[in-house]
Q: What sequence folds into this?
């Protein structure tokens, strides 16, 4: 069971989160690297035991190529900076790619205990077993929009140049750095759109499937047809016109 | 017991958080207002029962003046935008002011179950009953710094103009909008500094006492002696030179 594996890894990540702090800077940064690598190891070990013939791609280790058309894609901590800053908005993200298509996506926040799931087979998206769907928001003035930046001024300026009509006119814009959870928050109808120029395959693949099967729409950041292997994403509830 | 009151209010807030989403935009925004007001009512009712002679200041209701030198200051949801966006980085913040001085501070995140507390009497700061202290980070290059902005470009530009040496040189800068929890994250040593030009008395008073009693330092945003009634804050671990 993939969910059992994620709950197991989540227990470890939760413990690391609560124990961080009151340490020297060096210890703190070591802790993060240790958590990233530790969670990754737990997942790789579990996946190898359950799916010995599949390939695996993970953020730190890279590709474990078993010459299979089936590949697990792992992001051990999606939202590492949140984890370090003490913001419980991070997740373990896992997706299955078969012949280049994502067929299964799992996103789990162990602190809030929110487990999102979707599969091509069900064609639906779920939060802790309940079906979820996107919001009906179709006016920019009423919309909640997430932008994928931290306090890096050159990136922020680039976002503003391109998305000024959204920055200036949406109901509220927020900088959020965890693509997996943010895509899921559109999928469940909490927010309406998300723009990220740099998020990676590991960070976005699972959340993208979950959003699509909840009624959302996706594009690559260059406006091309959505491909989870391309860096960056434009994601909406399918109702909001983000492109002018 | 103040803590029992906060745990009670926290259960309500937690329920509201998990139930949000998959609703229309209108319902969603109503929910937030309802949560803010509902939590405030629970706290005011509880405080009036336990401290009938004290004054109360709260974000939505304003001042309930009992001509007392003792006043409870309430922020029912510190980090409302996080709450709405589905980011479990928000708290209930409560502080006691006696003759203009903060003598007690409580900050509680009901999702992560992190309860921060300090009092003038103990002279210490606590997380879930354990003493906490600030980090030893003293080099900007090693520091984790939070800035109090959302995706509002004019504010971001103002921050960048003033704090460019931090934006460009710190180890990682993050935009975080919940002053109470962010001050507590400095207090426990997870992060090293926080700069916010606009945070209010309700948002900062409890966290500021907690940080001071964990070894941190505070200034008003205009560089004056720290006063919790002035909007804005400059907060550090006491070791990091944020001012050039």
A:
């Amino acid at each position: 069971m993939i969910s059992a594996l994620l709950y197991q890894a989540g227990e470890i990540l939760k413990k690391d989160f609560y124990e961080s702090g009151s340490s020297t800077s060096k210890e703190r940064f070591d802790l993060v690297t240790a958590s990233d690598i530790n969670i990754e190891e737990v997942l790789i070990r579990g996946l190898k035991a359950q799916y010995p013939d599949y390939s695996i791609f993970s953020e730190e280790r890279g590709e474990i190529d078993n010459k299979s058309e089936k590949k697990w894609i792992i992001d051990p901590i999606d939202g590492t900076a949140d984890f370090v800053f003490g913001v419980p908005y991070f997740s373990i993200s896992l997706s299955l790619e078969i012949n280049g298509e994502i067929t299964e996506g799992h996103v789990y926040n162990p602190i809030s205990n929110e487990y999102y799931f979707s599969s091509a087979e069900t064609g639906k998206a779920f939060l802790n077993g309940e079906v979820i769907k996107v919001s009906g928001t179709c006016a920019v003035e009423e919309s909640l929009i997430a932008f994928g930046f931290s306090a890096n001024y050159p990136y922020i300026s680039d976002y503003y140049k391109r998305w000024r009509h959204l920055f200036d006119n949406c109901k509220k814009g927020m900088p959020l750095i965890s693509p997996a959870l943010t895509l899921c928050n559109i999928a469940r109808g909490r927010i309406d759109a998300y723009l990220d120029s740099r998020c990676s395959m590991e960070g976005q693949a699972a959340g993208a499937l979950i959003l699509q099967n909840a009624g959302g729409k996706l594009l690559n950041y260059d406006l091309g047809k959505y491909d989870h292997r391309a860096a960056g994403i434009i994601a909406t509830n399918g109702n909001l016109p983000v492109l002018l």
In short: The two ends of chain B are 44 Å apart (CA to CA). Chain B has two domains: 2-131, 140-236. The first strand of chain B starts at residue 55 and ends at 58. Residues 25-50 of chain B form the longest helix (26 residues).
